[in-house]
Design brief:
The strands form 4 sheets. A 7-stranded antiparallel sheet has the order 1-7-4-5-6-3-2. The chain starts with 11 loop residues before the first strand and ends with a helix. The chain is α+β, with helices and mostly antiparallel strands. The protein contains 7 helices and 19 strands. The chain folds into 3 domains: 66 residues, Elongation Factor Tu (Ef-tu), domain 3 (Beta Barrel), CATH 2.40.30; 153 residues, Threonyl-trna Synthetase, Chain A, domain 2 (Threonyl-tRNA Synthetase, Chain A, domain 2, 2-Layer Sandwich), CATH 3.30.980.10; 116 residues, Diaminopimelate Epimerase, Chain A, domain 1, CATH 3.10.310. The longest helix has 37 residues.
Length: 375
């Protein structure tokens, strides 16, 4: 296995089947790398069939395709994807040493092209942090220094944690970093191409910093450009005018929302006055009117002459009890005992929810209201 992953651009080979079990294959040679050491599975084909599974058994890699394989075995990697997940491996090695010199540790990483980030174990960062890191990694890429590989016996490596391995692969980025690693790496830092820090956020263990690297940065640029043009088309404006257009859209939406709330309250006020003249025991607002229930009960409280139950049936029953003589809580307690509903509020207005069917709730509510109002 020594040297197998020292050349990331080795993306094809012809080999033979070494073993097979339950549809999984091990080969005399492979160009595929399975998820390990922060590196995701490679993508590609074997004899024209897409590889849909990879797993390690010790130092041996097992492969799976949806089909039966026969010798000779021809492997082809997705070269663009291999570079997209390899370049950040090297970049993160460089940043690992950068942070260690500042007493900060990179605690976890994700080089998935759709969502790349690394976590550091502190939140205490200056506002200029991303700018400083960006400048450092840009310089490392521009230096175009070589990345080399060497091998030592595990028991000879200074860290006793590695003694259990027959051999340890050392990745050296000249003048920038040196550490054990088994994943593919670029041959020199210029091959990273680009490493763009996007934004950061606080997490429980410190700070998460999102980035786009190499081909992933290219893909993101194309994807974001398409999204911008699609949004500009929907709003019938140019990309440069999008912020102003969106701001106006949100302002208009906010204004329309306020106008709708005013209209809803006016309608509820009118309906409440009409209901109050009829002095009902119960008011059914109709299906799925829980939003209207809140406003209507407030308006009804202004004109009600007697305690009244108001409700709306959806997947659950939402209700309010309006009591001009400050007895809403008393009615609610009786309703809780009879129906097992939940709720709470002031002596004048309470609100709650019941899991009963509409018919059962209405029957129980009407019985309580008749008894309490003496009807």
């Amino acid at each position: 296995m020594q040297g197998r992953y020292d050349h990331y651009e080795r993306v094809s080979c012809v080999t033979e089947i070494a073993d097979e079990k339950d549809g999984w294959y091990r080969f005399a040679d492979t160009v595929f790398y399975g998820e390990k050491g922060g590196m995701p599975d490679d993508r590609g084909t074997i004899n024209g069939l897409n590889v849909d599974g990879l797993y390690w058994e010790g130092e041996e890699l097992w492969h799976h395709v949806n089909g039966i394989l026969h010798n000779p075995i021809v492997m082809e990697l997705d070269a663009e994807y291999r570079l997209a997940v390899t370049a950040p491996q090297t970049a993160l090695h460089i940043l690992d040493t950068y942070y260690r010199k500042k007493g900060i540790l990179i605690s976890s990483t994700n080089v998935n092209p759709e969502n790349s980030y690394y976590d550091i174990n502190t939140r205490d960062l200056p506002p200029s942090h991303l700018e400083e890191v960006q400048s450092y990694i840009n310089h490392a890429i521009e230096m175009d220094v070589p990345v080399t590989f060497s091998y030592v016996k595990g028991r000879e490596y200074p860290d006793p944690e590695y003694a259990k391995y027959d051999q340890v692969r050392i990745v050296t980025i000249k003048g920038l970093d040196q550490q054990p690693c088994g994943t593919p790496h670029v041959n020199h830092t210029g091959e990273i191409g680009s490493f763009v820090l996007l934004h950061s956020e606080h997490i429980s263990s410190g700070t998460r910093i999102y980035f786009a690297c190499s081909r992933a940065a290219d893909w993101m640029l194309v994807r974001e450009d398409r999204l911008l043009h699609e949004l500009a088309g929907i709003l019938n404006t140019g990309i440069s005018e999008l912020p102003e257009k969106l701001e106006k859209l949100f302002e208009n939406n906010k204004k329309q929302k306020a106008e709708l709330q005013d209209l809803t309250r006016s309608l509820c006020r009118y309906e409440a006055a009409e209901y109050a003249e009829k002095e009902p025991l119960i008011i059914d607002l109709g299906k799925n009117q829980s939003q209207k229930l809140r406003v209507f009960s407030q308006e009804y409280g202004r004109v009600a002459k007697y305690t009244t139950m108001i409700y709306s049936a959806g997947s659950l029953i939402d209700f309010a009890i309006v009591s001009p003589d400050q007895k809403a809580r008393d009615f609610l307690e009786i309703l809780k005992q009879k129906t097992g509903c939940s709720g709470g509020g002031s002596p004048k207005i309470v609100s709650g929810r019941s899991e009963l069917s509409k018919a059962d709730f209405a029957a129980a509510a009407e019985a309580i209201m008749k008894e309490k109002r003496g009807q």
